[in-house]
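From the pipeline queue, job 12 of 40. The input is one protein chain; the requested action is below.

Action: predict structure.
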Amino acid sequence: MLNENIKALRKAKGLSQEELAIKLNVVRQTVSKWEKGLSVPDAGMVIQIAEVLDTTVNILLGEEIPSSEEPDFVKTLAAKLEVLNEQYSKQNENRRKILRIVFAVIFTVSVVSLIRYVLFFTSIYQMKNIGGADASTNVTVIGGGDVPAYIPIWYYLSVLKPVLLSTLIAVASAIGFYRTRKK
């Protein structure tokens, strides 16, 4: 029985006698003797053979596991896997809900911030009657006659940075909110 099992499992793994012998650190003739039933490997070698052939010693020796134990083991394993799967799905659902709330809050804050920055930015351009005592003129002075006009571009960019940042955060949180929807 052992000789037939070694041969069948070796062939099932796609190994030649030579390849099995190399993995077990024996000569090919030894494997041939085991498969022909002319000799029997010692206990330590049977364990190594089982490991190399990815099986158990019981199967290698031809001992059958009682069929009454197998379904109970499978049922127990299936029940444990079902419980773990249920816990995992509940954990994922809770994580999804929390992320969705976080994305909604971030989106709301960024939109409110964006509105505030846009209103502030537009108020900069509403400068009227600067430098003139006469209320009927709407002239803004941006430079002198002998000095080139200086338009503070860096100032406007520094004002636009929060607007751009708020816009990016709003878009990212909207995408996150969409991706965490229930599928």
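Job complete. Confidence is low (pLDDT under 50) at residues 126-139.
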